[in-house]
Design a protein that fits this description.
Helix content is about 65%, strand content about 10%. By secondary structure, the chain is of the alpha+beta class.
């Protein structure tokens, strides 16, 4: 009898590795260099340097009131998904408390601390959980005050980040800003699979030629949409195409070589799913290998 499905085991691995990486970032980079990365992690750094309170104690005991708030305002399902990692984090912080800290420039500590911690948070999210902390009040503010989640995160983490400027110095605050920015980027990269992509919408009178060029030499997937000009009322075919970020120049050149008057919108795409996308990446990698050989 199978007690756990394969995806549940994979999610559990993501959560354990992710939580360990967060603990590693706290002990090796943030605490030694007074970097306040927002959240309860940042609070634990401040309390350690001011009052000498061990970070694992701050992380552990802060969970109880936050989990009660989560149960009251966010419900049982959301709370259960965060309990495991929220209590596993202080355990990991305690277990590796004697690990040698990073020795080097503070700027390197803020960069690599942000990379490791952001990767850990991203893996935890990918496993369907979080480490709790300030994510709970941020979600409550978002749900009950009807403000965007990004604004809620900015308010809570921004307030904690001010502690670096107040309790330490200007340099610590600026390094903390760098680290917090990198954490956000790493979380996005981890959750989207690390494959940056672009999507373009093209309106042209030469759609057949463009489709042939984009699907042939460039091996891209193209969708044809029906459109209508609001002013002229003319029917037009609109091309929708998603491609790897590094091929944007080739796509733009192909479009304007065939139709210089084409109207083209290009914007960032956070995540792409589907077999066509995977097959394109495989094809592209094979072509690169042939060129290199």
């Amino acid at each position: 009898m199978k007690f756990f499905k394969k995806n549940e085991i994979i999610n559990l691995i993501y959560m354990i590795i992710g939580t360990f990486l967060i603990a590693l970032g706290i002990n090796m980079f943030f605490i030694p260099y007074e970097i306040v990365s927002g959240g309860v992690n940042g609070i634990s750094v401040i309390l350690y340097h001011i009052f000498g309170i061990s970070p694992d104690k701050t992380l552990f005991f802060s969970n109880f009131p936050l989990i009660i708030l989560s149960l009251i305002f966010l419900g049982k399902k959301y709370t259960l998904n965060t309990i495991f990692c929220s209590f596993l984090l202080p355990v990991f912080v305690r277990l590796i408390i004697n690990i040698p800290p990073f020795v080097g420039d503070t700027i390197l500590a803020s960069i690599f601390g942000g990379i490791i911690t952001g990767l850990g948070i991203g893996l935890t999210f990918k496993g369907g959980s979080s480490t709790g902390g300030t994510a709970i009040p941020e979600q409550i503010i978002h749900d009950y005050l009807r403000i965007p989640l990004s604004t809620s995160v900015l308010l809570v983490d921004g307030f904690i980040l001010l502690g670096a400027f107040y309790f330490f110095d200007l340099s610590s605050g600026l390094y903390s800003l760098i680290s917090l920015f990198i954490i956000g980027k790493m979380v996005d990269i981890t959750q989207s699979g690390g494959q940056p992509a672009k999507t373009c919408i093209v309106i042209s009178n030469k759609t057949d030629d463009l489709v042939h060029e984009l699907t042939g030499p460039l091996y891209l997937g193209v969708t044809i949409l029906d459109g209508k000009g609001a002013y002229t009322g003319d029917r037009k075919e609109i091309l929708l195409c998603t491609f790897p970020e590094k091929t944007i120049l080739a796509v733009k050149n192909a479009i304007y070589r065939i139709d210089p008057s084409a109207f083209c919108l290009v914007f960032d795409t956070n995540e792409v799913l589907g077999n066509r996308w995977k097959s394109h990446l495989i094809k592209e990698n094979n072509l690169l290998k042939l060129k290199n050989n």
